[in-house]
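Sorry, explain these tokens?

___
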Amino acid sequence: MSRNNLPELPARKPYGSWVQTERAAHEAWAALITRSPIAARAMHVITAQIDDQNAFIISQEALAELVNCSERRLRDAIKILAEDNWIEVRRIGGRGTVNAYVVNDRVAWNGSRDGLRYSLFSAKVYVPEREQPDREELGNQAPLRRLPSMFAGEQQLPSGEGLPPISQPALEGFMPDLPARRINRDDN
């Protein structure tokens, strides 16, 4: 918990931590504080989490915890923010308990102004441990498939049977370029 008794989100990378706002938005935000302090607080929490796409995906329960209010009061606050065009809410799934909150790019944005037209296509997603169905297994999952690494100057040498159906062998001098990662020996 932070010193304000609000839960803390995981630390953010220092790159891209700036969020820009219009001056008029600050004046409107001040009026919003008077009208609905919880809506203003929710707007600050959401805005602090947007990435270059101006969106943040989170469950209502987790957002209510971050805003330090009940889910009912959060729903009322989100309704105010949506009606007053501060945010757009996109439902994830059928019940609406997880939403993408897209901040109006005339209020606040992260990144350059020319990237705003892409603000609905991806988002930062926050899923607390308690909401993950496999939370007891977190950290103990089988590793994901890794691509082999290549060092500078090395070449790929395909081997093995390959995936079905068996294909014709490559022509001499025309070996396929297989997916791999390049690693410099100096990077250790």
About this structure: The helical segments are 23-35, 37-49, 60-67, 71-83. The domain at 20-127 is CATH 1.10.10.10 (Arc Repressor Mutant, subunit A). The chain is about 25% helix and 15% strand.
